[in-house]
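When time allows, look over one protein, given below as sequence and tokens. The question is which stretches look regular and which look disordered:
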Amino acid sequence: MAVARTPRGKWIEEGMKALSAGGPEAVRIESLAQSLGVSKGGFYGYFRNRDALLTEILDTWEREVTENVIERVESDGGDARAKLIRLFAIASTADDPMRGITAELAIRDWARRDEAVAQRLRRIDNRRMEYLRSLFGSFCPDEDDVEVRCMLAFSVRVGHHFVAADHGTRSRAEVMELTRRWLLR
């Protein structure tokens, strides 16, 4: 009787959870195997070493936050505003291990200490900004306005989690909705 191997994707997902919780130092083969309830031997059927897993985690995250998100946004068609509304919805509800803000922040922190990760993050951010420019540019004729909207939309995605301020009589969700409406005006 054959023994089922732990799927490659499970190692990557568990690795991303570890990365999100404790940075790249927390991505340890033994710990991942224990979390998955398997022996670490299965790891080597998929990955040469820990660095290969870290590279695969980054590759997977890059696909998830760029091309896969863009495909989801584009799949239902509509004008640029409709696509931006979908994009904002995806970005605000993405709490899975690959697209969630915890993963985003962990990779950004890692990039501060690793030049190769920083270069990759720059490429990813440029791809995301390029897509935002294409959407905002379809209804904003002013290039400066397009760039400001892109920067604000991206900054809100990454940074609003750091803001602990109250919003008077408004909830955070209400302020985020006002922000979305302002960006789409």
Summary: DSSP finds nine helices and no strands in the chain. The chain has two domains: 1-60, 66-185.
